[in-house]
Amino acid sequence: MKTAVVAISLLILTFGVGYAHTDLTTAQVKAILDGGGNVVVVDVREEFEYCDSLAATPGHIIGSINMPWNSGVLQASFGDLDPNDSTIVVCRSGARSNAAANFLDGEGFGNVFDMLGGMSSWQYQTELCAPAGIPRGPYEETLLLSAASPSPFSSTTRIAYSVPSGRGPTHVMLSIYDSLGRLVARPVDDDRGPGMHQVDWDGADQLGRTMPSGIYFYRLIRNGQSHTGSVVLLR
After folding, report:
1. Which of 43, 70, 123, 156 is at a distance of 20 to 30 A from 104, taking alpha carbons?
2. Tell me, what DSSP letter sits at residue 148?
3. Are residues 18 and 112 in the same domain?
4. Does any domain span residue 183?
């Protein structure tokens, strides 16, 4: 704890205090976390990114909490955070964490730090998400859903997911919905064996009609487990 306090104090003396957050490298963040103390890491990516086991840097920083910025979770729930703690904000590459750090500055958080480069630059240990009641572990043990790529897209996007190993083929359903919750398409609705799978969506509904630009949501369901992601279609 003493190490963390000293490290943060040096950063504050160097960069100043008040309502302007401080940028940190991933190495500085790692050093602060190793020191312990009243430090909270807020990951402002969407849940499907936070839990993505297929990303270049899978999962998220150990012990971090997920309060997405784009979907407004942080803006609605920042009161759950202690403004006296040192708050390190992270995202995928740095844009959202900077916006979220500015927001926390404006709400009176005096010790806010933005991790430069985001999780794309994180080279240290991470952990994965798991459904309630299932211990964290490698992706082979749980149903996992990756972020659609590319997003935004204009012609085709690809959605990857993994089915737990050692349990034989089981029924898997992947559905796509519009922003009003209406079913658009169901590209997967059959048995899938263990391992990695992927499916492409061309932005059309079940009748082959071209869908308009907008945000669409996809949901993967297997044996009562479910994961949801979003993708942006631009025509």
Report:
1. 123
2. P
3. yes
4. yes
